[in-house]
């Protein structure tokens, strides 16, 4: 059964889920899906002989003995050992991994960048990745890296997978298709997609050029945050996460598979497509999520809540309550707090904050932080509203106000984020960003009362 708009030769199961045909709803669920009837064994994982002459193979995203391990059983045309031959090293000079600390680059500071301009040359998902910051250590599976991608060309008979971490993709312009071992995901701005560690996929351009942001998570996989006193509802609800149904390619063609391993890139050549999983079941799979379904909560009487209340996803660390990474979303919402300074307050904290603007105006930085742009406020460095935002919020009539047409996000980590040479010297850095606080005035005069 060939579905509409699928790559040539790719077969997908028919879904009965209704408006989300091709996807299964739920976060962390145990799914089962087959692209051919009867391809999925029932009652066991590894029968003596699989239907259609398939091979049974397990893809594990965690240790076998972890409580509730992340794993998926795949039933594929060839086992994965047939999807690699001898590797050769290749160089992708703009994709970096931690630790990446350069003696001539100063990461201590408040930084902001304009949108990275689209390139004139052909760039695929692999060649179009530019690393902005790294944190932690990829070899010990702690920390992260943040990237910008520029994609103008689909990958043709070329595939990628990473042993280093999962990739959280945040599109800002253009539409992409991720053809993965476990199914097909189409993604556009205002959506995100998660690609697990070890998953093989190909990226195609549906509407380009495409630009966006990527958080490469070396640590514990992203999960939904504990809501605590918020309770069972609001924030990101599990039903809004969509996992693709099974799809496969049975295609003999010379193909290149690129693998990222311990911060280095390797290439191998095979004579077929590696996207040959006909059926699968398990909880280790890619998904996408529509950020427009995120339901924010906030103060309804006074004061501005901590930004942690806007957490969409978290990757825990060994330091209780302090994340390896938080993915935080600032979207449209109502401001109603009385007698309060409503934008984010001035602060410095242990977390390092890399922000990106998907569209619209961010309330703490009404000028300069434009769609496609980024900012970095490293750990224990003070930051907050610029002068115009401070004066406007300090003197505003405090009636209910709708923050509309705005969507920004934050990759926040407990580790310091170190700039790459590209971010410090080649990316469109706003050299005058630090000056946005220079005109803040001394208002203290020693007399009581508020002025």
From the spread of the alpha carbons, the general shape counts as globular
Number of helices in the DSSP assignment: 2
CATH topology of the domain at 292-434: Jelly Rolls
Q: What percentage of the residues does DSSP assign to strands (E)?
A: 35-45%
Count all strands and give the number.
26
Helix fraction?
A: under 10%
Rg, nearest Å:
23 Å
| Low-pLDDT segments | 1-5, 14-20
Features:
single chain, about 450 residues, mainly beta, ten-stranded antiparallel sheet, disordered N terminus
Architecture overview:
- With 451 residues, the protein is mainly beta.
- It has a domain at 292-434: Jelly Rolls.
- The chain is built from two helices and 26 strands.
- The strands form five sheets. Strands 2, 8, 9, 11, 12, 13, 14, 15, 20 and 26 form a ten-stranded antiparallel sheet that branches. A six-stranded antiparallel sheet has the order 7-24-23-25-22-21, with no helix packed on it.
- It is globular.
- The model is unreliable at 1-5 and 14-20 (pLDDT under 50).
Topology overview:
Blueprint (H helix, E strand, L loop, with lengths): L9 E3 L10 E3 L5 E4 L20 E6 L10 E6 L11 E3 L19 E4 L15 E9 L4 E10 L6 E5 L3 E15 L2 E5 L3 E5 L5 E17 L23 E4 L2 E3 L5 E7 L2 E7 L6 E6 L4 E4 L20 E6 L6 E13 L16 E9 L13 E4 L9 H9 L5 E13 L4 E2 L1 H6 L25
Parallel strand pairs: 10-17
Antiparallel strand pairs: 1-16, 2-15, 3-19, 4-5, 5-19, 6-18, 7-24, 8-9, 8-26, 9-14, 11-12, 11-13, 11-14, 13-20, 15-20, 17-18, 21-22, 22-25, 23-24, 23-25
């Amino acid at each position: 059964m060939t579905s509409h708009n699928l790559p040539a030769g790719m077969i997908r199961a028919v879904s009965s889920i209704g408006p989300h045909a091709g996807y299964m709803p739920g976060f962390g669920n145990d799914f089962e899906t087959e692209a051919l009837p009867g391809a999925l064994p029932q009652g066991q994982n590894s029968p003596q002989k699989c239907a259609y002459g398939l091979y049974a193979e397990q893809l594990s995203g965690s240790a076998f003995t972890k409580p509730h391990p992340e794993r998926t059983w795949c039933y594929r045309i060839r086992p994965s050992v047939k999807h690699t031959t001898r590797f050769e090293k290749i160089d992708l000079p703009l994709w970096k991994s931690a630790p990446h600390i350069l003696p001539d680059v100063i990461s201590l500071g408040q930084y902001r960048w304009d949108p990275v301009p689209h390139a004139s040359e052909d760039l695929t998902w692999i060649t179009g990745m530019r690393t902005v910051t790294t944190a932690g250590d990829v070899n010990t599976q702690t920390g992260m890296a943040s990237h910008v991608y520029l994609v103008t060309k689909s990958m043709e008979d070329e595939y990628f997978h990473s042993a280093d971490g999962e990739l959280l993709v945040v599109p800002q312009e253009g539409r992409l298709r991720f053809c993965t071992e476990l199914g097909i995901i189409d993604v556009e701005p205002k959506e995100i997609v998660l690609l697990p560690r070890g998953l093989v996929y190909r990226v195609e351009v549906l509407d380009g050029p495409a630009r966006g942001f990527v958080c490469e998570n070396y640590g514990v996989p992203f999960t939904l945050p504990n809501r605590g006193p918020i309770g069972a509802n609001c924030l990101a609800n599990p039903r809004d996460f969509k996992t693709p149904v099974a799809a496969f390619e049975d295609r003999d063609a010379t193909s290149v598979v690129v693998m990222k391993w311990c911060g280095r890139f390797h290439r191998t050549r095979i004579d077929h497509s590696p996207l040959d999983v006909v059926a699968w079941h398990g909880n280790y799979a890619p998904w996408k999520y529509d950020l427009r379904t995120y339901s924010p909560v906030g103060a309804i009487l006074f004061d501005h809540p901590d930004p942690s209340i806007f957490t969409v996803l978290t990757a825990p660390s060994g330091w209780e309550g302090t994340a390896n990474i938080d993915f935080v979303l600032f979207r449209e919402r109502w401001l109603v707090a009385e007698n309060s300074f409503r934008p984010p307050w001035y602060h410095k904290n242990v977390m390092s904050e890399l922000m990106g603007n998907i569209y619209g105006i961010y309330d703490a930085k009404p000028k300069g932080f434009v769609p496609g742009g980024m900012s970095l406020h490293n750990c224990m460095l003070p930051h907050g509203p610029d002068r115009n935002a401070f004066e406007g919020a300090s003197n505003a009539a405090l009636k209910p106000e709708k923050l509309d047409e705005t969507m920004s996000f934050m990759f926040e980590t407990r580790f310091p984020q170190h700039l790459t040479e590209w971010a410090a010297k080649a990316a469109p850095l706003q050299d005058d960003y630090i000056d946005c606080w220079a005109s803040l005035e001394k208002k203290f005069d020693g007399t009581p009362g508020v002025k």
